[in-house]
Amino acid sequence: MGNPILYIVIPCYNEEAVLPLTSGMFLKKIKDLAAAGKISDKSRILFVNDGSKDKTWDIIRSLAEADEHYRGVCLSRNRGHQNALLAGLMTAKDLADVTISIDCDGQDDINAMDAMIDEYLAGMDVVYGVRSKRETDTWFKRTTAEGFYKVMKALGADVVFNHADYRLLSKRALEGLAEFREVNLFLRGLVPLVGYRCSSVYYERAERIAGESHYPLKKMLAFAFDGITSLSVKPLRLITLAGMLVSALFSSLVALLKFMADPFEKLPQIVFWLMGSFSGSSQEKVLYILPVYVIAFVLIWLYRWKINVMSMGDQEAASYGVNVKTDRLVVILAASVLTSMVVSISGIISWVGIVVPHLARMIVGPDFRKICPVSVSLGICYLLLIDGFCRAVSTAEIPIGVVTGIIGAPLFMYFIMKKKVDW
């Protein structure tokens, strides 16, 4: 058996300032390891251009043309550090016996690769590069980073303390990693789930050689959120518990309002509003909310094709040029405004917003351009029918929310049992 083929995988985003400096360091390291007989002379350096806006890709192409040890992969657009890194690892999976992933900013000690290769030759499939100390970080970054690892541990996620994405993976470990189908990638949490024998190599992290950090506070928070939510069910349990607590709190506040309200005038209005009723609605109130309602509805209508695309998944939507996080937030806010406007004058009419859109989906299919107008039409007809029924069966008007709840809950369960709706 010959020496293993090593691919050093390096994700790059707007690194024109640092790449000309560190590329030579990587080349020297791979040649030194080959000269020492630890790796094959077929080993390569694989740069992954993550949709850079500067001359990063031009530099990578020039390096590859000048020396066969350099290889490059160019993503069609910026997909984020974790996706770029995974793309490089999956590219190298079929070409290499072992990979080492590292950032191109020169902060991670390249000489730690010697110890990583030694660990691999000793039988390890995964070798983590772990920072022995974080003295080069600011107090804020050091404190928040260490706090993040502690929170992850508390939530039950198997992460290596003070380890980022500087690691060695064998071919077997890469094949195991390829079996995951995660959307919100957090590789430093996924890799331990692969299993196999692992060890750690410790090093001191240096200052960035050149250029600027591409991980501002906003990106760090988003990355931390993905890590926390993608590796543990405890956040779901905490959210559920928090929902129960908030519900109990506001139920108590509503009960207090009922107790303090005028029993002859205000109390009936509160009760009818909570049960959902058109008895307190008027043309004046409708006209008052109409401008805001129309703006929110038009906004959702303009986003109808983006909603279709986002229904295919975040990665697919992003490939079509949709800014998933921003557009999803806009749609959620517009839908929230629509809901709040209606609830403000009619009260809480339950199950209409769940049952009617799914009925529309069953009739016209998953195309939101059709679902939107059909849902509006069905909703109008459904509520007029229920309202007429409530006024006809009793001299005292029955709150419409009571009837929609009695009809909606069993109907929704019927949809689930029949599996006629593509959730």
Structural description of this entry:
- It is built from 17 helices and 7 strands.
- It has helices at residues 19-35, 56-66, 81-93, 112-121, 139-154, 171-178, 187-194, 217-230, 234-260, 266-275, 283-302, 304-310, 314-319, 324-346, 352-364, 368-392, 400-418, and strands spanning 6-12, 44-49, 70-74, 98-101, 126-131, 163-170, 198-203.
- It has a 7-stranded mixed beta sheet, with helices on both faces.
- The mean pLDDT is 80.
What is the CA-atom radius of gyration, in angstroms? 29 Å
State the major sheet.
7 strands, mixed
Helix-residue proportion: 55-70%
Give the averaged pLDDT, no decimals: 80
Strand content: 5-15%
Low-confidence stretches: none
Total helical elements: 17
β-strand number: 7
Judged by helices, strands and strand pairing, the structural class is alpha/beta
Shape: elongated
* Sheet with most strands: strand arrangement: 3-2-1-4-6-5-7
The H-and-E topology, N to C, reads as EHEHEHEHEHEHHEHHHHHHHHHH
Termini separation (Å)? 51 Å
Outline:
This protein is an alpha/beta fold and 423 residues long. Helices cover 58% and strands 10% of the residues.
